[in-house]
Amino acid sequence: MSHPLDTSDLIDADALRERLTALTAPHDGLGTDRKVRSAVLAELKAAMRAGREVAQAHLRREGGGLACARRLSHLQDELIRVIYDFALAHVYRITNPSSAERMAVVAVGGYGRGTLAPGSDVDLLFLLPYKQTPWGEQVVEYILYMLWDLGLKVGHATRNIEECVRLSRSDMTIRTAILEARFIWGEETLFQELQTRFDADVVAGTSSEFIAAKLAERDDRHKRQGMSRYLVEPNIKEGKGGLRDLNTLFWIAKYHYRVRRQSELVSKGVLSRSEYKLFVKCEDFLWAVRCHLHFLTGRPEERLSFDVQREIAIRLGYTQHPGLKDVERFMKHYFLVAKDVGDLTRILCSALEAQHVKSPHSTGFTGLMLRLKSPRGPSAQPIREAPGFIVENGRINAASDMVFREDPVNLIRVFQVADRLNYILHPELMQLIHRSLSLINAALRDNPEANRLFLSILTSRNQPEATLRAMNEAGVLGRFVPDFGKVVAMMQFNMYHHYTVDEHLIRSIGVLAEIERGGAEGENPLASQLIKSIQNRRVLYVAMFLHDIAKGRPEDHSIAGAKIARKVCPRFGLSAAETDTVAWLIEHHLDMSTYAQSRDLSDRKTITDFAQIVQSLERLRLLLILTVADIRAVGPGVFNGWKGQLLRTLYYECEPHLTGGHSQLTRKEVVADAKERLLEKLTHWTTVERQSYVGRHYPAYWMRAEIDRAVSHAELIRRADARNEKFAAEVRTHAFEGVTEITILAPDHPRLLSSIAGACFVTGANIVDAQIDTTTDGFALDSIFVGRELPDDADERRRGERITDLILKTLRGETPLPEHIAKKATMKGRMKAFRVAAEVLVNNSWSDNYTVIEVSGLDRPGLLYELTRAIAGLNLNIASAHISTFGERVVDVFYVTDLTGQKIANISRQETIRERLTEAVEGKPEPAAAAVPASA
Question: Which cofactors go with this protein (predicted)?
């Protein structure tokens, strides 16, 4: 900022010096005594603590991030000056110093910019005229130990001027540090000499080298931190769009133009006045967030994780609005600032990069800034299909500054041409687009040609994701589709979504295009197959682009999104039938995922209900593809083989209902057919064994048992009978689905599934599904599916066997689970940031044979164990359990009956179920129950 900063209330350095001097009086003015040093350190600590409290109070009262960072830097400067003066006057006193016994204390790196966060490193250069002397070593050591004892993390180097120059030539990190060097105390003439030598011997003639290094460094950093600036837990210092990007911008401009302050970049023509104001505004906001973050956590934390976002939002004064929480409003502002940082760095860095490529040995860079218009080079070629645009070195540029004013449709056309011809936009053109955004008005949005071009971009077979992201970064996309503009930079405060809403929508288009190109056949075979046969691909792309466009509104986003689709699809040029399909897909875009992950797919009612929603095979195909792309675009690792298998199962079960090929066999005929198919597989059994075995299962088992699983169960039970074992188990790995199946045979008991869930939790196994069956002779046959952890089948099988071993010990009564659970069930750190209301639904319409209980709430360790204990305590039998987690939110669904095998019809009992399970979700204690005894 240009106005002087009031730092008078931070520290009174003169008074502090007097107090420190007074401490030496009993020792003839010397501060070498240990007690004196301890007392000096105590005074310094008190001064630092008081100064930081003042700085934090200013921050909370005024909100200025840069002001806080500069106050903390000033406080640090004064402390170093006081320590330096004390060392020279009272510890290592010299009356007649030689020319070598001189020193300058210099701030370098971030501290050199005159800004510090509460937890920042203090980077110092002790600058000498010649080689080090014993006196110099003692003074440096004294200062460093004092700073370390103050609890500061100090980066330091002791060098003479010649060493600084020599090392700066060969080491870009040292060169950058000295670029930002700032004199603190000591011999200022040494510092001035260093600056003169640095300019003449290091900087002169090396702009190209420095710029290339900084751009490469920036790209490497972005790769490490995550290429998107829209990650929902961003790193405010190192992440894309963070403070380091602003530093890079200033380093590059400062190196070339040799300015000391950012404001000088305006007079140099590097930044316009508005760009400079935007630079300062972004920097001030990011510093405010960073200082609050350090003060809040008490450590140099740079990641805005979920557990601190809400408190930072409150500190910064954000409030809740309809459809958006306070923390979501704060994070939206953060991402808009990150986007502005991206605009600023791209304006400068892209231009420098382009100039650097053209003339790698040039040091003039006279055409550095995008604003400066130079005649088009002889290599510029007009684009025949797009008059008004030319191609220069593989980049599209405007032939004149009037290209958009003369025809605003060109604001859309230029992106369509770039996509079709596989060109990128020249930095000059990007800035011209920025300056022309006001031309995107209602007339352009209603222009048929503009909408045709946009639909061409959206449905492109080239790289629609990259083109849409460029449109979004340029500000065009949010203005051309205003409803999309409302979700730009919008963050959803949950652990499920990894990106902002606009970034998720653009990524989902990329995933869809990848599926269509055949690049996802290994992971998504069915979607890759179906997309080849859909009748109208553009309804799929439009629905994908719009499916979350109504996020952040009070109304359900699926319903509101369908309304938006009915408004914008005709504008895009879609027919009434196409618009209906898009609106239906958006309204139901979560249904297939919900049914697949939360309902029993072996229950015929699940399939008929879902088929009634879908109603046509084409819609089923479109919905399957859209669902896969949507989940995959949420973030890395969210889509897995198990979810893919559930979606495929739902598709294949639903398909016959929609094609008229569904079997009309009666329940009795289905059971008889299942038994017959199993008997055909057991020809190595005796006739007596086979007939006896098929009588051991109830009809419900035969209705849902797949033939391979039924054979595996039969062999397991036969082996247990031969050994006269009450308990038996089997492990099967399913690599493609990403799960391991554990089958347990044990005497039936109401708390059986609870004990299995507890044992799985203790071993760290994550249950994703469970199928529970009971035999006619009193045994339970439970199939538990746990998430796979190890890539090798043999290793994963051994892991499954370890889990199985603990389950069997638990069932035999050898391991008391409640104690284990109490020790392990502690809330994970990030989970504490979320509040999810517990909700329990008891539904008798979702299944013909079972009452379905859906439990949702905040996920926590051991929750499934607590829920299954509570269900057993309510004297309910669980037939199947389906466990889904969406970040911090869990949705567990149980198909249950009472102990007589009937649905729960009594209203009073349903209310009791809701109350008990709500208490279990909220963690209210239930009386401990004993483990299942071996005699059960």
Answer: Mg(2+)
